[in-house]
Amino acid sequence: MLNRRSFSAALATSMAASMISARSMLANAESIKASNIVMVHGLFADGSCWTDVIARLQAVGLNVTSVQNPLTTFPEAIACAQRVLDRQDGSTVLVGHSFSGMIVTEVGVDPKVAALVYVAARAPDAGEDYTALASAYPTPPATAGIVFDGDEGRLTEEAFLRDFAGDLPKARAKVLFAVQEPFHKALLAAKTTQAAWRSKPSFYAVSTEDRTINPDLERFMAKRMGAKTIELTSSHLSMISHPEAITALILEAAGQKS
Description:
- By secondary structure, the chain is of the alpha/beta class.
- The protein has helices at residues 4-31, 51-59, 74-86, 101-107, 130-134, 157-164, 170-178, 215-224, 238-241, 243-253; strands spanning 36-40, 63-67, 92-97, 113-119, 146-149, 152-155, 183-184, 202-207, 228-232.
- The chain has two domains: 1-31; 33-253, Rossmann fold, CATH 3.40.50.
């Protein structure tokens, strides 16, 4: 049986060993570099919305894939992103814009995922009702511009140009409107079953002039997850209007020098 002095010494030794182990784990985590970037687009868009960021990431030697999110059902969107992630060889940064933040939050628990990057994106907790969460903030203007043809939703051209891509040159915004991918109404009721940001390093780019997701809601989600956060004077499409800043954030998440 240990006396009090022996017990204290043993406890101190154990605590010191634990601290060394923790520091070692942290050092190893910080030294990991991701060579793969997987990006997922949200509603009203397709995979080409990442073009300007992809080119910059490829220029520094990273392997980049933009998922063509089907925008049909949440399980199908998850499966599509997971298939792309499964093809990656090694550590990967998972990046999501807008609605696809839910996909990042769900799929990001995969062991291949080293870090998560949210670009003006949803970041719900596991099982959380995102619509209820968003209702605590003023409704963004773009919501009024959503129209449905049966179960397929899209933004009107006026809302797309003003509330979705408001800081882009009009000619560029009109091209993006032309390739807008309709989404299925069922997506709006989707809930995540897990929250990867609770266990993975997370990064968030807030768009301060966002008219599609309330900027204060973005700030709340970023703060709640403890994300490294930047704020950009940008519309919802910051990866197009501020590709350099978004690229730098992704490089930081990947452990690469920008």
